[in-house]
Design brief:
alpha/beta, 8-stranded parallel β-barrel, globular, two-stranded antiparallel ribbon
Length: 240
């Protein structure tokens, strides 16, 4: 076995996508809580904002079906179904220490979300994700402390990984989110050289999780938090 590469921090974040989505309906408070009990150190989901300016976590931008389908952005918080929780409700239930990795459903979500994170003092354990570097640049221009992750695929980095890493450093974008199949030990080492984090998505099997941990990724995202614990143990990591 090749030598294991270490992440930038003491250990990689184990992000349960949608909570314990393999066991309960994803993106519900119950699913998030189960993921935490099973050993996830963070939750990955998508963030939207209601018509009355409340950040909420949901797997889709719409509610209802057929002719009754409406955008979350067009309804008030009071009109949402009970399985959709606000960011404040999720944070209160899970506690301030658990990491939240939240993909912004639209650029308009950023402003009320940042206000909420500053109000609750949870900016340090919350990461904001988006696929457009210009959107991340705009967030950085108004908030020096926001933690930002660029979501893309390796094939879309036309300028090459080293130039992307250098650009991210210069623009203060904290890390890169790629599918696990894009990451190698050499690529994580490259981004670490620029002090940029490497996040691996789609790690739903124990073997893949272990491979990503061995490659030095800084966050692993999957729907099986229990398998994440097993993978860490298989590598000899104590896991509490």
């Amino acid at each position: 076995m090749s030598q294991r590469i270490l992440p930038l921090e003491a250990s990689a974040i184990m992000l349960a996508h949608g909570g314990a989505g393999a066991h309960l309906p994803a993106n519900t408070l119950e699913s998030f809580q189960l993921a935490s009990r099973l050993g996830a150190t963070g939750i990955s989901s998508t963030l939207w904002v209601t018509n009355d300016g409340i950040p909420v976590i949901a797997g889709s931008s719409t509610i209802g079906r057929g002719f009754r389908r409406r955008s979350i952005a067009q309804v008030d918080r009071s009109e949402l179904p009970p399985h959709i929780s606000t960011l404040d409700e999720v944070r209160t239930a899970l506690g301030p220490a658990l990491v939240l990795a939240l993909q912004l459903g639209s650029p308009e979500v950023a402003s009320p979300t940042l206000a909420e994170l500053h109000r609750t003092g949870t900016l340090g354990t919350t990461w904001l994700l988006h696929g457009d570097g210009a959107v991340l640049d705009q967030i950085r221009s108004v908030d020096d402390a926001a933690q930002l992750i660029w979501v893309t695929r390796l094939r879309h980095i036309t300028e090459g990984p080293e130039r992307r890493a250098a650009s991210m450093r210069d623009r203060a974008i904290n890390g890169l989110h790629l599918h696990h199949s894009d990451w190698t030990g050499g690529l994580t080492t490259l981004f670490h050289r620029f002090r940029r984090y490497a996040w691996a998505d789609g790690a739903h099997h124990e073997r893949v999780i272990a491979e990503m941990l061995s490659a030095g990724t800084d966050a692993v995202i999957g729907s099986h938090p229990d398998l994440m614990v097993d993978a860490r143990r298989s590598l000899g990591e104590p896991y509490i």
